[in-house]
Amino acid sequence: MYLALLVIFLQCSELYSQKRVFTFNTVDIKVQPSVKVKNGAPLSITCHADISKSTDFQLKHNFTVFKDGKLVFMTVSDKRDARYEIPVARSSDTGDYECTVEAGGKTKSSNSLHVWVTGMTKPILTAEKKEVLEGEVVKLRCELPEEVPPLYFFFRKMKMNSTPKEKSVFESQRNFSVVEFPVEEGDNILQFDCFARRNVKLEFESSEHSKKTLVTVREPFIKPTLNVKPSSNITEGDRIQIECSTVVARMRDIEIILQKNKTILNSVRDEKLLKYSAVATLEDSGEYQCKVEQGRASKTTKLNIVVSELFPKPILAASVIKLDENKELTLSCSINGFQKANFSILRKNSNADIWLKNSKNLTMRVNVNDTGSYICKAEVKGIVKESKPVTINVYAPVSKPTLSVVSGLPEVVLGKSLLLICRSVMGTPPITFTFYKGNKIKETVVNDTYATFLDENIGQNDKGGYRCDAKNNHSSGMKTSNILNITVIVPIKNASLGSVPYGEVEDGSETVFLCSVKEGSWPIRFRIFRKTDREVLLFEKNENAHRVVWRREAMNRQDTGTYYCMASNRANVDVKSHPITISVILAAWQKGVIAAFVLILIAGAVTLTLWWLLCKKKKAKGPSMEMSGSALATNSPNEKLTRQHNDGDYYSGSGYIEGSENHMKSTDESKGPDLESAEVEYTEVEVSTLDPHRAPVQKGTETVYSEIRKANNVSPSYYGKTSHPICCAALLTF
């Protein structure tokens, strides 16, 4: 029974689960009243889930709202809608909103929706102090509590009848900023405000300006007073006294400075009064400034002082400013409309002026060392004035100039540049040098003791006629150098090498080498090299000619190789010829010796061959054995003699034995029954045969089976006739 109930329960659960089927169609997000609302207005964000179900059953929905990826709202509801309320929208609520719904293990999100809360809250500005001194700073803080960074803050400093001064600060991490404004001279009542900006979708949005903050400025000291005595009609030689004073609220760190044209004349510290006294001169006229400083505060008073001239500056006159040495010079000093003065004449020097005479006039005979600047001074009532300097130039005559080539030797390579130097050992500078090429002026140079001239692209005709002149302000006039002739060096061109004989040279014979150039200035350095595995200098000679001949008397096999020559002159350019190849071969007599030796060897070989053939022939014809004709006629393998020639000819052994058989028969007849009764023995004999077309080369051997009867009484002389020991010895030797 329990089993049945369990089965029924499982079936019901399966049916129940099959009925609870749902799916998300869409998830939407909406904003009311619109996606763009004003700052401070209410804002409502609704999330709606569109779900399809198989039956009507309850489903829990988890709603989550995100702003710019951060969770801002979450709720659980049986309904398909959820609402996120913002009673007072601020600019910080601007952003991209997205809704996510989760139910029954399924999740779906809406599209993103941008909401823009326009306008920003009004910033709050506070000042650290409401009252400050000149030279201090005003510290301000601007804050937007309800806004979120990043923010741009702008601060303004305003005062009466002045353009506001503005400072800006970017804050990326906080919603407030702090700045400092210095309090300057003349600031009395200051007003400050601030506002902020933010960037929304590449657009800037600004807040309202904060309330103005008022700051009062107090003076740490009053503007200084500047007095001068005497107050008017100041003349050179009078003593003037200048006083600068102020009233200070606090004496600490107070400083008074007196200036004239940015030059500090005097200063005091921690005092209320400054004094300055001096004997007035014409240079003391100008604007004086008294400045009082304390911390950052500063106040200034200016006063213009005019000093009348007691007497004008003296004037120094010279009888002449350019003169020859050993001439007289007169200097005179005077003051226009003023005679009562103490005069002195001096020569200017870098260290100190050199006194010459206490007088209005000075006459002296000058030399070169007297060249320089001269002045005169005049003194009246302790006032000393100096004249403008007068420059005197004393000239020594120039010496005869010398013209030379800078490189040293009076020569130049064709097509190159020639640098000349004209020098005058003596003479007071500046000296004017003039260069001539022929009768034409090429260049004029003003210098102290020498000058250079560059003549470019020298040709073959530019060989002489250079000179230079030198002159200065001396009355003696111009001096001329000697004429300088130049050697133009023509570089080597087109070197070539030849030989006689050319190409092949007999061993031990003489070879003549000829190295020549197309053009080039003499002397010419000729060198001949042989190149095999290394370069070897064989010949070297300096020649006043365009060619050189070198004789190599006895050539040998080691002289085989590649030859070339190299030519150079003072142009310092080595010109290399094309290489030629020399092969050393055997001489005629050496070839004759070798030919004779070869012929002797050939004759000896022919002689031995003929000898061998003769011996072979004699051996074949000798009656050394008896052959049976009947035996040769049989088909027995031991009695058949055949020969297969290499070229296919057939040669029968029976014809070769026939003569011998007849001879043997006649002999047997003369012997009688003794020979007939002898035993027959078959002996294998190798017979060498010669190719009649290629004697004496052995082409092969033939085997002859002969029938030899044994006889007890065969004469030994019979065998001697067929042995031929001399022929055999000759064949062995060959």
Can you put this structure into words, describing what you see?
This protein is mainly β and 734 residues long. Helices cover 13% and strands 48% of the residues. It is built from seven helices and 58 strands. It is flat and about 150 Å long. The C terminus is likely disordered.
The overall pLDDT average reads 80
Question: Unreliable runs, pLDDT <50, ≥5 residues?
Answer: 624-734
Instruction: Describe the global form.
Output: flat
Strand content: over 45%
Number of strand elements: 58
Q: Helical segment tally?
A: 7
Sequence-ordered SSE layout with sheet pairings:
Elements: H1 2-19, E1 22-32, E2 36-38, E3 43-53, E4 61-67, E5 70-77, E6 81-86, E7 95-103, E8 106-109, E9 113-118, E10 124-127, E11 131-133, E12 137-143, E13 151-158, E14 165-171, E15 176-182, E16 189-200, E17 203-206, E18 213-218, E19 225-229, E20 234-235, E21 239-245, E22 254-260, E23 263-269, E24 273-279, E25 286-294, E26 297-305, E27 307-308, E28 315-318, E29 322-324, E30 328-334, E31 342-347, E32 354-357, E33 361-365, E34 372-380, E35 383-386, E36 390-395, E37 402-405, E38 411-413, E39 418-423, E40 431-437, E41 440-447, E42 450-455, E43 466-471, E44 479-480, E45 487-489, E46 496-500, E47 504-506, E48 511-516, E49 524-531, E50 535-543, E51 547-552, E52 561-568, E53 575-576, E54 580-585, H2 588-621, H3 629-633, E55 642-644, E56 650-652, H4 653-671, H5 673-676, E57 680-690, E58 698-709, H6 716-723, H7 725-733
Parallel strand pairs: 2-9, 11-18, 20-27, 29-36, 38-45, 47-54
Antiparallel strand pairs: 1-3, 3-6, 4-5, 4-7, 7-8, 7-9, 10-12, 12-15, 13-14, 13-16, 16-17, 16-18, 19-21, 21-24, 22-23, 22-25, 25-26, 28-30, 30-33, 31-32, 31-34, 34-35, 34-36, 37-39, 39-42, 40-41, 40-43, 43-44, 46-48, 48-51, 49-50, 49-52, 52-53, 52-54, 55-56, 57-58
Helix pairs in contact: 2-7
